[in-house]
Task: structure prediction
Amino acid sequence: MSPSCIRKVLIIASMRNMIQQPYFFIALALILFSSGSFARLNIEITGGLESGIPIAIVPFSWQGKGALPEDIAAIVEADLARTGLFTATSRDKMPATPHSGKDIEFQQWREIATDNLVVGRLIEDMRQNGASFLVEFQLFDVYRGRQLSGFSIQANHSTLRRTGHQISDIIYQQLTGERGSFNTHICYIMAEDVTTEKRRYRLAVADSDGYNEQIILTSSQPLMSPAWSPDGKQLAYVSFETGRSIIYIQELSSGKRREVSSQRGINSAPRWSPDGRYLTLALSRDGNSEIYLMEIATGELQRVTHSYAIDTEPAWHPDGRSLIFTSDRGGGPQIYSVAIDPESKTAQRPQRLTYEGKYNARASYSPDGKLLTYIHSDSGKYRVAVQDLESGTMRVLTETQLDESPGFSANGTMIIYATEQNHRGVLESVSVDGKVHSRLHLQKGDVREPSWSPFLNK
Amino acid sequence: MGQTFKILGTCAVLLLLHFGVSGCSADGELRPDEEAIAQEEARQLQIEAAAAAEAAAREEAERAARERQRLQEEAAIAEAATVGTAAYARKIEEMLGDPQNPLSTHVFYFAYDSSDISVADRDAISAHAEFLATHPEISLVIEGHADERGTREYNLALGERRAMTIDRLIKVQGAADSQIQLVSFGEERPVALGHDEQAWSLNRRVELLYSGY
Result:
């Protein structure tokens, strides 16, 4: 991360004297999303298909001094490929490299069955001290020889990748009719040296493809359960910086944060209501882990579940009128749903949603409320599953063994999750049909608990 | 083959016996004179007297040392019985660290997705309960942990449930509420890395951490 992207770093040391660990370390970093372009993560397509929408994204021309500052076409190609809905023509199979509409000979592209063609130019904008760019692109329907879309976008060095994601969103919407969710963020936890006194936990935010990583918080004690506010401007998370679990809400632009729950026992699993007014959370203040609602403005708590079992991992239905949660009230962990009304402070009797397998946990809804994704385990393997709520059918999407924390992208086409690869945690995404997996690599440490942000511009 | 060795062995023993006997018969036939005997006896008496004196002195010194030690020990016991002194802390540490003492068992392990205490651990847990009941100034943090399998927030609750099982057992045997704090770290603070049962079994644990002495 370049130093310019951190405005200010606060270090608060020695929070409390604890046995064996007299000093806790925690650092808060205030970040600016628009700055910094240092790439720490990258994508691998680990599986694919040949039946997606054919598209060719020709490398953009570069009109400026020095080396090409960013390969915009590659960013767009990786974005589209990850969804599993597109099949991109590889560069060595391209018959030509046009950079604008007038250079295109459509017949050449029809011959290689490329239905859609993207061309573009990256131009150094000399009007502003050389640090500014103009990104032009056009999307063509190859068979009709017609332009479907074309934009000219201003950018600076630190927003070039984001411009690539914006172009991906435009193309995606044009060709599928659905909104793209490439120009979004992910948050996650990284851990290092967890078995030694040097242990470090970091809360990070990055672009949806894993680039532009920004560290939000560093602590010598565990950080858990980061969750986006519905406007994408705040994160709720659990920090053990004082030696026990406490829930905080932190504003990303200012770095300001406040404690929202430090009840006796565990303070866990915060998730924002769709309207942003409530958090649902798991607290054990009444003896064992139960689901609660908290009105954020007042801190007022309502208890939702009443059971001797573990009730945790709550998540909202997108309509805000019911929750799902994990409970082992039936013996092992399974997913239950409970209708709630925060206004009248009532909750119905929970209904069990999962029956296949001994272990189904940490579910969340797709943005349209029609699907659930959760961790399903049978015979010792923990994998990402999707359940269609109407038919009740469940499908396992992965072949890994220690998957965790699955969650949908803002447009519901992809699921991000954490898994284990070569003895460390990595993040992967999978298309909802299970056909395309991509991996986001981290240079060091374990990565876990990814969460995909909502759309950044409503 | 075996028989040949036996015969050779027997021969060797016989040869050794033969040389041993002939060696003895070669010893001297010398006889000391009277004067030499008297001198030797006088020297022996002197040595004995000196030894007796030395022994008496040593005994006296030892008695004094024992007395000093007794006084020191009495003082140490008095100090060790005083909460807050360094000697007291040392005494408690020795108790907790003595492998013969059941208190030295302060990590308890659990089966997968279970918070049941194994029968073998019950005596050690009772010892901790009695220790807390008889040392009201001492406090205990019960830390619950889980292995990496399954989901993190469920594991946080599972770690707490493990800690609660031990907490209940300790309190029912006389420890006070105010002495005990529970904390669960779920799967966030493993002691063993690795993705196999060997590592997992070490991570599914409750640790007892004492303070206040």
Observations:
- Chain B touches chain A at residues 113, 141, 148-154, 156-158, 160-161, 164, 182-186, 188-195, 209-211 (CB under 8 Å).
- Chain B is about 60% helix and 10% strand.
- Residues 38 and 187 of chain B are 88 Å apart (CA to CA).
